[in-house]
Design brief:
Layout: H1 3-13, H2 22-35, E1 38-39, H3 41-44, H4 54-62, H5 70-83, E2 87-95, H6 98-101, H7 106-114, E3 152-159, E4 162-165, E5 178-179, E6 183-187, E7 190-197, E8 202-206, E9 215-219, H8 232-243, H9 248-251, E10 255-259, E11 266-270, E12 273-277, E13 285-289, H10 293-302, H11 308-311, H12 314-322, H13 326-331
Antiparallel strand pairs: 1-10, 2-3, 2-9, 3-4, 4-5, 6-7, 7-8, 8-9, 10-11, 11-12, 12-13
Helix pairs in contact: 4-5
Length: about 325
Amino acid sequence: MDPEAITRYLELLGEPRAPPSRSALDILLAAHLDRVPYETLDITSRRPPPPLDTSSAVRRVLEERRGGYCFELVGAFTALLRGLGYNVSLHHGVAGTEENRDKVDWGWLGGISRTGETGGEIEGSDGRNTEDASEGLAVGGPPPSDPTHPNHVVAIVTLDNTRYVADVGLGDGPPRSFELKDGEWQLFGRTYHLKSLNGGAVWRWTHTTSGSFPGMDFASAPIRACEVGDDPLFQRKHRWYHADPTASFYKAGVVVYRMRRVDGAVLRLRGRTVTVIKGEAEEPAVAVTARSQDELCAVIVQVFGSDFEKAMSHDEVGRVWDRSSPTWKAKL
């Protein structure tokens, strides 16, 4: 990332430049969760899948003032961290139920991470090439519709020979980095757990009880690619999310998250209703329910900070409104 883009990114986050450190990393992580929303509106509106290369991910955040989901958000944040001098590696992750995560073939994924062959360059991030180049993987693997297929990218930062997960792509994940070691910790009244599996080859992170999903497992070994968009499995999953009406993000309808840095409160838009979640014991408090398309757009822009309207056509914005309705979800 060039110096000008780094400066603009930091200005967006409202933070000054600082040398790499754990405290500086945590400040950037919390600021990102507050200023750059987690959103799947492109998938909801059925737009073509945006490219996953780093420059596109950064441009989405800085130029379009958009958020995104894990592949997009982690790609942009990783570029910022590396531009600031951080040592960041990317890792395959599987978020979902513990039952599904128990079925993941980590031996296969370990081969992909270290020695797998992709069978050629990966195309199709712009939706033009329908051939799934990742099928050329010599070691096979499940289809993208399989819940054991990697569906999350995890960024791990190494500082003074200690590794920390700094994840901006979970929506309501921890607003601080956490060290790769077995244990339990609390943040803003929420309790998280981490334990190693398979002799340390895999890590299992358990979300708080009020979290949007149970947890995720992720590989200790990094992916072979340096960028999110260069990994064939992430590319394959990204295209599937945008093309398959059975994909989880499409079926979920309108979903947007933001986590306030000042108090760790999670602002969650599901459908047309914004709720505020504090800690894990309290019931979510309803903040507002949009009664029209204009109101929904205003909420997404003003409360969550996504200028999605400017990037979409009139018909695409209309689809976001239609698919925010409980009636639409009931038809799936």
